[in-house]
Design brief:
- By secondary structure, this protein is α/β, with parallel strands linked by helices.
- Helices cover 33% and strands 19% of the residues.
- The chain contains 7 helices and 7 strands.
- Helix 5 links the parallel strand 5 and strand 6.
- 34% of the residues are buried.
Length: 229
C-alpha cells in the first residue's frame, strides 16, 4: 500500500491531537508585527508572550527562525550588535514571541549599550504579558558576566528563565554534555527554585527542538484546552 505524507502550510487548521504531536505547527504561522524603540510603541498587554535575549552572535535569530520553521522571520546581521529594536512576532491573536536587542558586543558605543540596558530592564519589569525569558548562550562561551547580570536581575523579579546553549553542533557530543552539566550545576547553585532550566540547542541540526517547544508551549498556554486563542 502506498503511503502519503501530510504537508501542511501555515494557514492549515490542524486538530488538537495533530498539534500535540507536531508542536512546530503552532509556531510556523508566526508573523512580524512591529519593531519598537520604546516600550510604549508595543501593542497593549494582552495574552502571553515569551522573549528571547542573548549576547550578540549567540544565535538568537537563527534559533527563532528554526523554531518557527522560517528562514528570515528574525533578521540576522553580519554586524553583531546592530539590532537595537524590540521585534514582536504574532503566533495567534493573543500570543507573541519577542526578539530583544542583542547585548555584550564590545564595539558598540557605551551610550547605545546603556540605552539597550534601560530598554531591556523596562520591558522585563513592566511588560505584564511576559511569561518567561529564553536566554541564549553560545555553548562554547556560556555564563559570561553580562549573561549572569541578566540572570541575577530576572531572579530578583521572579522571572522564569530557560537557557538555550546554542551551536551545540560546534562541539563533540561529550564536550557539549560536559558543558551542559557544568552550567546546570552553576545555575542550581544560584537560581531560585523552579526559575531556571537549561538545555543544549542547535538551530543547524535541530538539536533540542522538542524540549524548547515544551517550555514555550507551557509559557504560552498552548497546553490549555482552549489553545486556539
Amino acid at each position: 500500500m502506498a503511503t502519503h505524507s501530510l504537508k501542511l502550510d501555515k494557514y492549515t487548521v490542524a486538530t488538537p491531537d495533530f498539534q500535540k504531536a507536531n508542536p512546530a505547527i503552532r509556531y510556523r504561522a508566526a508573523s512580524f508585527v512591529i519593531s519598537a524603540a520604546r516600550l510604549n510603541q508595543l501593542p497593549q498587554d494582552c495574552g502571553p508572550e515569551v522573549a528571547f535575549a542573548g549576547r550578540s552572535n549567540a544565535g538568537k535569530s537563527s534559533a527563532i527562525n528554526r523554531l518557527c520553521e522560517q528562514k528570515a522571520l528574525a533578521r540576522t546581521s553580519k554586524t553583531p550588535g546592530r539590532t537595537q529594536l524590540i521585534n514582536l512576532f504574532q503566533l495567534s491573536e493573543q500570543r507573541h514571541l519577542v526578539d530583544l536587542p542583542g547585548y555584550g558586543y564590545a564595539k558598540v558605543a557605551e551610550e547605545i549599550k546603556r540605552r539597550w540596558q534601560q530598554t531591556m530592564e523596562a520591558y522585563l519589569s513592566e511588560r505584564q504579558s511576559l511569561r518567561g525569558l529564553i536566554l541564549l548562550m553560545d555553548v562554547r562561551h556560556p555564563l559570561k558576566e553580562v549573561d549572569q547580570q541578566l540572570l541575577d536581575w530576572c531572579w530578583q523579579v521572579g522571572m522564569p528563565v530557560h537557557v538555550l546553549l546554542t551551536k551545540a553542533d560546534k562541539l563533540k557530543r561529550g564536550a557539549a554534555q560536559n558543558t551542559l552539566m557544568q552550567v546546570q550545576r552553576e545555575l542550581k547553585t544560584h537560581a531560585p527554585d523552579e526559575l531556571c532550566s537549561v538545555q543544549l540547542f542547535s538551530a543547524l541540526k535541530g538539536t533540542g527542538l522538542t524540549d524548547a517547544y515544551a517550555v514555550l508551549d507551557r509559557w504560552l498556554d498552548f497546553n490549555q484546552h482552549n489553545s486556539s486563542i
